[in-house]
Design a protein that fits this description.
The protein is of the alpha+beta class and 173 residues long. It has two domains: 8-121, no CATH class; 137-169, no CATH class. It is built from four helices and eight strands, in the order βαββββαβββαα. The protein has helices at residues 24-28, 83-87, 145-154, 166-169, and strands at 8-9, 31-34, 43-47, 60-61, 63-70, 97-101, 110-113, 117-121. β6 and β7 (110-113) form a beta hairpin. The radius of gyration is 17 Å and the shape is globular. It starts with 7 loop residues before the first strand and ends with a helix. It binds zinc ion (ZN) (2 copies). One zinc ion is lined by residues 125, 127, 129, 150, 154.
Length: 173
């Protein structure tokens, strides 16, 4: 929680109902970071709707998303015609904005001020792939079947030519 000038309270994630299952290990290693610090493939679990209006001496409370999502951070597209962008009321007064996803799992973009607080489980994969973040997304393979499969399973594609372990190449039964 480096540099977060708030006392945060993260209630247990609700289970059942509309709440998608999140592995306990991913909840345990989740961190509170700024939206501008989210990286490709990180799992965004919750936000803090009242973080900029803290009660004196109080806590800012996490609000768990029913559907956590894998982030694909990218610049905001002012010309985007999706309903979320059309309906959003962000202005330059909100500071720099970041688009955390341009669709999945919703139909529209998720745009937030870069200073927003979020509960995020950092990207991790144990298949043996290169888990370091590439400097540029063009350093990933966005088209090969194995890479797209890895993206769907983990939130991040593979590097061009990267080998998959047999365990991931062959779905477990
Ligand atoms: Zn949009
Ligand atoms: Zn992997």
């Amino acid at each position: 929680m480096n540099g977060i000038p708030y006392r945060v309270w993260i209630p247990p994630r609700p289970t059942g109902g509309d709440y998608a299952l999140v592995q306990q290990a991913d909840l345990d290693r989740a961190r509170v970071i700024r939206a501008g610090e989210v990286r490709l493939g990180d799992t965004v679990l919750a936000d803090f709707p009242d973080f900029d209006r803290p009660v004196p001496g109080g806590l800012v409370r996490a609000q768990h998303f029913t559907d956590p999502y894998w982030a694909t951070p990218q610049p905001v597209d002012d010309a985007c015609s999706c309903f979320a962008c059309q309906a959003s009321a962000w202005t330059t007064a909100d500071g720099p904005l970041v688009k955390l996803t341009d669709g999945f799992p919703w139909d529209g973009c998720e745009v937030r001020p870069a200073g927003d607080l979020l509960l995020v489980s950092p990207y991790r994969c144990t298949c043996g792939c290169d888990t370091t973040l590439a400097d540029d997304w063009s350093a990933y393979d966005w088209s090969a079947a194995a890479s797209v499969q890895h993206l769907l399973e983990t939130g991040r594609p593979l590097r061009p030519g990267e080998e998959l372990t047999p365990a991931l190449a062959t779905p477990a039964r």
